[in-house]
Amino acid sequence: xxxxxxxxxxxxxxxxxxxxxxxxxxxxxxxxxxxxxxxxxxxxxxxxxxxxxxxxxxxxxxxxxxxxxxxxxxxxxxxxxxxxxxxxxxxxxxxxxxxxxxxxxxxxxxxxxxxxxxxxxxxxxxxxxxxxxxxxxxxxxxxxxxxxxxxxxxxxxxxxxxxxxxxxxxxxxxxxxxxxxxxxxxxxxxxxxxxxxxxxxxxxxxxxxxxxxxxxxxxxxxxxxxxxxxxxxxxxxxxxxxxxxxxxxxxxxxxxxxxxxxxxxxxxxxxxxxxxxxxxxxxxxxxxxxxxxxxxxxxxxxxxxxxxxxxxxxxxxxxxxxxxxxxxxxxxxxxxxxxxxxxxxxxxxxxxxxxxxxx
Length: 359
Fold this sequence. Notes:
By secondary structure, the chain is α+β, with helices and mostly antiparallel strands.
């Protein structure tokens, strides 16, 4: 099957909850700030002080690992920068002269929360902590994190390094769209081969919630004296993925369980389906148009009395040229919420259209 070079086609439809505008609930938990949101739509289901600017400790490494994964060339080996790994706090065990890959560093950031891994990744990708912080802030702006500012790759305390529960939820929703990130943060342990010379060693995830609550797939722990205990997690159930963020929370494991129980019980499921009328013109074929379809419905959820709206647009060529085979990929269906792309699905030809024989 061929993937068509896409342009925006002037066809869109809006989906929204068929209920009046409202707001998310609050729940009695220990966190200074928290949020539970749907990963697909970024719809907030539960929240408390979710836009309060606070230090977020090592949950910062969600951004650092995402940038590392997005930089590519993940499995080429290199020698870590000697100064970059000389940092206090949690570590993946890097020593001067160690040979690693970027993928190794992502495991080191997301499992044992290695500050050395974050430092090594920052210098490898950007050349310095300062240049990497610029990259972090640019990516945060792209994601829509309006109340966040990054200074360090690890999350070690700095007065100008902060975020909000809501912004960290947005970041996590973006990170979980990266398959490598999703795979790494979900592992309770991993065996890696690095060092000088490289040798096998095990890394263990500091996120106890992975084994405490069914459906949890990540994401990241954090702690400093100034930030307190911080935790970002994600949980899948019935086709829905919810993201939970707590900042400065002495009872974070149990609070996440409480918040998930409340959110899954209260959230309203929504479906966005593709209408049967979706078609594209065909040139040189026995049919003037070909119907399009997506293989799956898009499932998302929101708080009751929410005014969250999902809009989708098609990305296809202006027309298709015969012959077309049924189930050929002919473009994308892109789902957006609040101006941000949240999901894209391949669009398929619904029938075959052969050449029209010239008379």
